[in-house]
UniProtKB/TrEMBL annotation:
Pfam hit, one: Orn_Arg_deC_N
Active-site feature positions: 344 (proton donor)
Family label: Belongs to the Orn/Lys/Arg decarboxylase class-II family. LysA subfamily.
NCBIfam families: lysA
Binding site for pyridoxal 5'-phosphate: 240, 276-279, 373
Entry protein name: Diaminopimelate decarboxylase
Domain Orn/DAP/Arg decarboxylase 2 C-terminal: start-end pairs: 30-371
Domain of life assignment: Bacteria
Lineage: Bacteria, Pseudomonadati, Pseudomonadota, Alphaproteobacteria, Sphingomonadales
Residue numbers binding substrate: 279, 315, 319, 345, 373
Domain Orn/DAP/Arg decarboxylase 2 N-terminal: 45-282
Length: 421
């Protein structure tokens, strides 16, 4: 459910007309709904209500906007970060370091130092060399780093290959069958406090079976680790729960179904459970608002050329991802059309032969379910300015990231003297 609805024939976000935002800010622009964020956090928390004090750490990579993070922090969420920059963003937004988990395969010594200085809750280690580096960094600071190993359970999540993370050929985690050996080595490192186990098998999962298979392996491993003398106190079950993009596809499992499965599988683990939801919190809370530049007749179907492009919303080009495309003020007709952007790439295509609202030049369209992995993946390709972002709450709205003038982008370059001469 989201709060993008039609009122008097025009799309609103909560109580604000989308057209009013477009007129004031220009297009393309990302628009986020506070009411939707609040609802999704409540639904996810309710799904886990039978668990004892779970840590829900929002996956910052899904949407790192400061206002979004501050909203989620006020609602009690922690943060899952994968870089020093995301760590600083989360802290600047008011999320306590004690509710932050640091994941990712390529943490540098500098990033480790930064996280230790702030006192984060846990590092999710992904290799033995990383464990050795973190131990050395912690000892140099007179600290012990709280850690878990991310386990690769060799479970196929059944999602797109580029967002699958739990198969043996993926770069993430340590192999499940090497876990006991890796934990034994970590326990011998004086700068580490080995406290948990972590797993994450992919993003946009539409079936609970792969998740359950991975979690069963985690439970078995916790038992083996305790038998080996390890004091396992946490289990990070990652994120990845899918959201509905294409209405023609089966609806992904609900947070309630997910919570019931976790509660059943994790019974008796005697650990603090941790979760890293991202898309399921922010996906439906955002839309990319764009204006039609012109409609061009194609060989088989018209091309609807919009002012948003692959640099603004990369998912369709990168993953062949499906986003519902709606007219902000539908005229009533529908027809098949190809929706494309102005970037000089054939891949700058949002939809082909899509049955959609008939639109014409200067009409507004909204790309729905764009709150996750939208603005955060935007670039300045073709020297296009980064997309601004707007947060709405009831009848109020504010620009929470302004569109930088193109002159700022140009000023970031420098021309050496020998070129000027």
């Amino acid at each position: 459910m989201d709060h993008f609805d039609y009122l008097d024939g025009a799309m609103h976000v909560e109580q604000v007309p989308m057209a009013a935002i477009a007129d004031a800010v220009g297009t393309p622009v990302y628009v986020y709904s506070t009411a939707t964020l609040t609802r999704h956090v409540g639904v996810f928390r309710e799904a886990l209500s039978r668990l004892d004090d779970p840590l829900i750490a929002f996956a910052v990579k899904a949407n790192p906007n400061a206002a979004v993070l501050a909203t989620l922090g006020k609602l009690g969420l922690g943060a899952d970060v994968v870089s020093g920059g995301e760590l600083l963003r989360a802290i600047a937004a008011g999320i306590a370091a004690g509710r932050i988990v640091f994941s990712g395969v390529g943490k540098t010594a500098e990033e480790m130092r930064l996280a230790l200085e702030h006192g984060i809750f846990q590092f999710n280690l992904e290799s033995e060399p990383e464990a050795e580096m973190l131990s050395d960094v912690a000892l140099s600071m007179g600290k012990r780093a709280p850690v878990a190993y991310r386990i690769n359970p060799d479970v196929d999540a059944g999602t797109h290959a580029k967002i699958s993370t739990g198969k043996s050929e993926n770069k993430f985690g340590i192999p499940y069958d090497r876990a006991l050996e890796s934990y034994a080595a970590a326990r011998a490192l004086p700068g580490l406090d080995v406290q948990g186990v972590a797993v994450h098998i992919g993003s946009q999962l539409t079936d609970l079976a792969p998740l359950e298979a991975a979690f069963v392996k985690v439970g078995a491993l916790i038992g083996k680790l305790r038998e080996a003398g390890h004091d396992i106190r946490t289990a990070d079950l990652g994120g990845g729960l899918g959201v509905p993009y294409d209405p023609s596809k089966p609806v992904p499992p609900s947070p309630a179904d997910y919570g019931a499965m976790v509660t059943r599988v994790a019974q008796g683990w005697n650990v603090r459970l941790m979760f890293e939801p991202g898309r399921v919190i922010v996906g439906n809370a955002g839309a990319l608002l764009s204006r039609v530049v012109r409609v061009k007749q194609g060989a088989q179907a018209p091309f609807v050329i919009v002012d948003a492009a692959m640099n603004d919303l990369l998912r369709p080009s990168l993953y062949d991802a499906w986003h519902d495309i709606r007219a902000v003020r539908p005229a009533g007709g529908r027809a098949a059309a190809n929706v494309v952007g102005p970037v000089c790439e054939t891949g700058d295509t949002f939809a082909m032969h899509r049955d959609m609202d008939v639109v014409q030049a200067d009409d507004l369209v909204a790309f729905m379910t764009a709150g996750a992995y939208g603005a955060t993946m935007a670039s300045t390709y073709n020297s296009r300015a980064l997309t601004p972002e707007v947060l709405v709450s009831g009848g109020k709205w504010a620009v929470v990231r302004a569109r930088p003038p193109i002159e700022t982008l140009i000023a970031g370059d420098s021309i050496p003297d020998w070129v000027r001469d």
